[in-house]
Write a structure and sequence with these properties.
It is a single chain. This protein is mostly helical. It has a domain at 1-25. The protein is 51% helix and 0% strand. The chain contains one helix and no strands. The longest helix has 23 residues, at 2-24. The N and C termini lie far apart (64 Å).
Length: 45
């Protein structure tokens, strides 16, 4: 149970650090960047 409490503390701390970095560098968009998949066009022979 102690490890659970420590894990929650670590997650909340990292969340706070990320929020601090976002405010420092004026990051407004928090949408993840999802790369497009490789599109292979079928070639008819």
């Amino acid at each position: 149970m102690m490890y659970g409490v420590i894990a929650i503390f670590v997650m909340v701390s990292i969340w706070g650090i990320i929020r601090l970095l976002q405010n420092t560098f004026k990051v407004t968009s928090t949408d993840p960047i999802i790369p497009k998949g490789i599109q292979i066009n079928a070639v008819q022979y």
